[in-house]
Structures are given as structure tokens and as C-alpha cells.
Amino acid sequence: MASSRSGPVLQDVVPDLPSTTSGDTTRSAPSNVAAVMARLGSVLTALGRLEEAKETTEEARDRFREQEFRVNEGITTAWLGTIALAQGDVPRARRILDEALQLAAELGSSTIRAEAAPALARLILAEGREDARSRLVALVETCRQASYRESEGHVLLALAELARKGSDPAAAADELGHAPV
User: Fold this and answer.
1) I want to staple 73 with a disulfide (CB 3.0 to 4.6 A). Which of 34, 64, 88, 180 is the partner?
2) What's the distance, Cα to Cα, between the start and end of the chain in Å?
């Protein structure tokens, strides 16, 4: 499970994590380590270091899964879908996001669905679905119900992009007019 790369990256970023074993910070405070690794995965994604992001986020997800932190497992699974999209692997992104949505349904978690919403919006656009608009509108509502304004904004931008692609600048402007303030 543990990759040789994520350990040193975590040590470099958070060298003073409390340890229950002599010097082994990867075994201490497991949920805290998993949370730090998940955030590190997000930072690596933003930096475009996608392979490192994938490895680090997978390890965080696996740690959450071992500890039965199911919502966190679902969130990091959704983030792995985002990474797959950034790597251009649409089929893998679909499989991963479906896994996150299945977990969200099992748990009744709007948090997982809202975390997955920006990647799902990009996936819907990439797949060129005929029902894209209705699916994106449903995602906006999911984000609003969960009070995830940033995710809502990403989905609204996808709606505007869909309208723009349809050569309807007025519809794109209308979609953006619904953006959160």
C-alpha cells in the first residue's frame, strides 16, 4: 500500500508529526497522517505533479479505508477521479467517480457528491452526453444542498461552457448569472 515516494514527500512537508514509534511518522496518528496526505495530494495536483498526486491520494484513501473513515474514503476517491481527468484518462475517471458516487449513495453523503461535482461536470462535458445540461443542473442543486459554493461555481462554469459550445452566448451568460456571489 505505502509507496516509496509518498513517505518521503510527507516527511518533507510535515517533518514534526507526533510519533508513537521511534521516528516513524507514517504510523502515528493515522487519521491525521491520512488527512495530511490527502491535502498534499491536492497540492500536488494543483502543481501538475499528477503521478505523485495520484500515489499520495491513493495512499490517503487506503488509510481512510483501513480506518473505516468512509466519507473521507469517498472524498479522496472523488479526488482520484479529478486526477484521472487531469491525466486525460476519461474511462478511468468514469470508473473512479462511479465508485465515489456508489459510496456516497451507500452512506447518503451529499459531501462526497459535492466533492465529486467539479470532476463530474468536466466528465459530463468530455463525454458529450445528450443529457449534459440536465445532469449539470442536478449537480448544481447537489452542491447547493451541501453548501459547497466552490463546487457549485465549477459546475456553473461547465454549464456556461456547454452553452458556449452550443453557440448560445446568451445562455452561457445566463448560466453564469446564476453563479454564487
Assistant:
1) 64
2) 42
